[in-house]
Design a protein that fits this description.
Among the domains are: 70 residues, Trypsin-like serine proteases (Thrombin, subunit H, Beta Barrel); 88 residues, Trypsin-like serine proteases (Thrombin, subunit H, Beta Barrel), CATH 2.40.10; 86 residues, Serine Threonine Protein Phosphatase 5, Tetratricopeptide repeat. The protein is 50% helix and 18% strand. The protein has 20 helices and 15 strands. The strands form three sheets. Strands 5-4-1-2-3-7-6 form a seven-stranded antiparallel β-sheet. Strand 6 and strand 7 form a beta hairpin. Helix 7 packs antiparallel against helix 8, helix 14 runs antiparallel to helix 15 and helix 18 crosses helix 20.
């Protein structure tokens, strides 16, 4: 009898060992993908015009009825769509966000969703093999094998990150980072490629400790306006899009009388003031937005860019560097900070930032304009032409690209090509004052003085500020036209 009990005990022990080994064995990459693929979603953010402008990944945590992603994936969106292949995933609302930690959580409806095992990010070790799964560059659910390369804080006392070797491309942010057992140990967040490839994920323990915010109106100024159906908000955006900045200002001011704590609209108002060249009023708007939330990346980026105009370079640098840390995907911040470095004579850092911006978003035209302008200042016409040609290739319907290239042709004394580009710019926008004044200067160089005077005078009617900037050329053309 004892012998039988011993056999039963050994059989039971063997079963327990085998059973538990199913949960302790490492999986192949194919098995990992099969386990995790079903909980990865694609998140698409839309602007106020209904155009998609940002894309990322998310992870379904079914136990909590959550979809977890990065805050920067959804920042400033007026609409968000969550997809899994051809299926639209319905969510109830946003129940949590933290811009500094780059976390945003949606609550799911009552539909059935697959499950993913949750790991323990406190037990990770440097050199440990892991996998990253997301939607890089719109390619749905791709897997990369990598290792943990670091576990130290990215920012003292503020943010703990897992440093990984997998590249976090555009679209991968918010994807799953799992261990070799298929357990979720992090959410991919951001990448820095200047100097070396640095990629970071948010530890899963930090996310699982989150207590959702019960306020159903959490979709606030950080994601969209607090009251997006308000007619003043709708009309203000419409007037902004039509470049009727004075009318936009009136509408945004009326909106803020009703919703004075809407940081999103404070920034829109500031941008409208910038376009009216009322920089002091713009700065007040950006200050107000930052007063409402000191970690609002768009507000910091906008104020930093505005401070450059006031030559307050030290504070501008602080604002822009913090904004870039909060939102490493924002191209405006990259360009503003690179421009600041260029103004300060640190052209090496400027070029590093522009190169990084192009790696992150190779279709952002302003980066090519700005980097090309610096090449132009160094008389490096070959690389300046390369950048402006790339801008035209991306979008051949923007006048600025053509009058920029026309100016390059003027300096290389290819006047016929310069004239053709200025004419193209004016064909695209017959009211482009900058194109008229540049063509007028070219007419002056070509000794066609009457045409030069006519073009410059027409540009001044469209934009009186150009007169002070080109007064010397105008007086010279006017004198010789007599």
């Amino acid at each position: 009898m004892k012998h039988k009990k011993m056999i039963i005990f050994l059989i039971l022990l063997e079963f327990i060992v085998k059973y538990n080994s199913l949960f302790c064995q490492e999986f192949t990459p194919e098995q990992i993908y099969e386990k995790v693929n079903r909980v990865i979603v694609m998140i698409i953010s839309y602007d106020n015009n209904g155009s998609s402008y940002k894309q990322g990944s998310g992870v379904i945590i079914n136990d909590k009825r959550w979809i977890v992603t990065n805050y920067h994936v959804c920042k400033n969106s007026s609409k968000i769509i969550i997809k899994q292949k051809d299926n639209i995933i319905k969510y109830d609302k946003i129940i949590y966000y933290d811009e500094l930690k780059d976390i945003l959580i949606f609550s799911l409806d009552d539909s059935f969703y697959p499950q993913i095992q949750i790991g323990n990010s406190d037990n990770l070790k440097i050199g440990q093999k892991i996998y990253a799964i997301g939607n890089p560059l719109g390619l749905e659910n791709t897997i990369s094998e990598c290792i943990i390369s670091g576990l130290s804080p990215l920012e003292k006392n503020q943010r703990e990150f897992i440093q990984i070797t997998a590249s976090i491309s555009h679209g991968s942010s918010g994807g799953a980072v799992v261990n070799s057992f298929g357990e979720l140990i992090g959410i991919s967040s951001m990448s820095f490629t200047g100097g070396q490839n640095l990629n970071f994920a948010i530890p899963i323990n930090d996310i699982m400790e989150i207590t959702p915010i019960s306020n159903s109106n959490i979709m606030n100024s950080h994601i969209e306006a607090r009251d997006p159906k308000n007619p003043f908000f709708i009309n203000g955006n419409k007037e902004m899009n039509n470049k009727n900045y004075e009318s936009a200002i009136i509408n945004f001011i009326e909106y803020l009388k009703i919703n004075p704590e809407d940081a999103y609209v404070c920034i829109n108002l500031g941008v409208a003031y910038i376009n009216q060249k009322n920089y002091a009023a713009a700065l007040e708007c950006f200050d107000k937005a930052i007063e409402l939330d000191s970690n609002y990346a768009r507000a910091l980026s906008s104020r930093g860019a505005c401070l450059i105009l006031f030559k307050e370079y030290t504070q501008a640098g602080k604002d822009l560097r913090k904004a870039l840390l909060l939102d490493p995907e924002d191209m405006m911040t990259y360009n503003s900070l690179a421009t600041l470095y260029a103004y300060q004579g640190d052209t090496a850092s400027a070029f590093v930032l522009w190169d990084e911006a192009i790696k992150r978003n190779p279709d952002y035209i302003e980066t090519y304009w700005n980097r090309g302008a610096l090449f132009f200042n160094f008389n490096d016409y070959e690389r300046a032409f390369k950048d402006v040609n790339k801008a035209i290739e991306i979008n051949p319907n923007i006048p600025k690209s053509f009058y920029f290239r026309g100016t390059l042709y003027k300096y290389t004394k290819e006047y016929d090509k310069a004239m053709a580009d200025y004419n193209t710019a004016l064909k695209l926008d017959p009211n482009d004052a900058e194109a008229y004044v540049r063509r007028g200067i070219l007419y002056l160089v070509m000794e066609e003085y009457t045409k030069a005077v006519n073009d410059m005078e027409h540009s001044y009617k469209l934009n009186p500020d150009l007169k002070d900037q080109t007064k010397e050329y105008y007086e010279q053309a006017k004198q010789k036209a007599k």
